[in-house]
Amino acid sequence: MNSFASRYFTDLPKTALSASYWIFVIYLLLPLSLMMAMSFKEASFIAFPIQSWTLDWYAKVLQDQQFLGAVGYSIFIAVATTVIALIIGVWIALLVAAEGIWGRAMIFALACLPAVVPGLINAISMRIFIRVLDIPTGTGAIILGHTVHAVPFVVVMVLTRLRSMPHSLTDAARDLGADNFVAFLRVTVPYLAPALAGSAIFCVLSSIDDFVRTFFLGGYQPTLPMLIFAKVQGGMSPEINAMATIVLIVTAAVGLYAEHFTRRSKA
């Protein structure tokens, strides 16, 4: 009896943790499943039950020039943001990891500050900043705002990978005649490839998904979140669900591929 009680109370925390995990999974997936199901409803309103199913809403979305334009515009902003954030983030990570640099803790703290500032506060401050510099709202302002938000995550991921890099690799490259720049391109950058890939994927997805900063810094041309928000103002419909489902599937596929690539690169 004592053995049974001991085993019961030992397994109880594991059972509770497992149950909590599956409750969280259901809580996360159930709304997404309902959203995806509604995108196949033939009627033009959101309500249960679904009496007939159709793919017409997806065909309509994929032929919608406004939707395709918003997707292309969002991808352009995301790519530009990613390139700039990677350059700045890698430079800051190298600066923080370097020896003999005064104030490295302060540099790291300032670089990571945008990650802990609430998005709304960050967007308002960026709007004031571009007005002071007389920068017009639109593409440039959006890229600036998204880059400020993305740099801290690049710094953290690259710095974590950089600190695990053996110093003997760059020392061997220098002994073989490579200067600092060549050693960086041929040794450091390949070693940082998993962190760079993960950072790039994160920057792209966060930029495409960013609504608050885009709302405060955007111009007349809508990004994908702005377009969906504008359509929601007119009422929910299966067309909006189809848009959201397409975005969900693409982002999930990209995220899973990034995870697979990172694990394979570290192996």
What does this structure look like?
- The chain is mainly α and 267 residues long.
- It has a single domain, classed as Orthogonal Bundle (MetI-like fold), CATH 1.10.3720.10.
- 79% of the residues lie in helices and 0% in strands.
- The chain has helices spanning 2-38, 56-62, 65-97, 104-116, 119-132, 139-163, 167-175, 180-191, 193-209, 212-217, 224-233, 238-266.
- Helix 4 crosses helix 6 (139-163), helix 6 packs antiparallel against helix 9 (193-209) and helix 9 runs antiparallel to helix 12 (238-266).
- The two termini are 47 Å apart.
Essential attributes:
single chain; 267 residues; mainly alpha; MetI-like fold; 12 helices; 0% strand; cell membrane; MetI-like_sf; membrane; Bact_Polyamine_Transport
> What is the fold named in CATH at topology level?
MetI-like fold
Q: How far apart lie the N and C ends?
A: 47 Å
The ordered string of helix (H) and strand (E) elements is HHHHHHHHHHHH
Strand percentage, roughly?
under 5%
Radius of gyration: 24 Å
By CATH, the architecture is named Orthogonal Bundle
Query: What is the count of structural domains?
Result: 1
Shape field: globular
CATH H-tier superfamily: MetI-like
Task: Chart the SSEs and their pairings.
Layout: H1 2-38, H2 56-62, H3 65-97, H4 104-116, H5 119-132, H6 139-163, H7 167-175, H8 180-191, H9 193-209, H10 212-217, H11 224-233, H12 238-266
Helix pairs in contact: 1-12, 2-12, 3-4, 3-6, 3-9, 4-6, 6-9, 7-8, 9-12
Transmembrane segments: 21-50, 70-98, 105-130, 142-162, 183-208, 240-258
Family: Belongs to the binding-protein-dependent transport system permease family. CysTW subfamily.
Domain ABC transmembrane type-1: 71-258
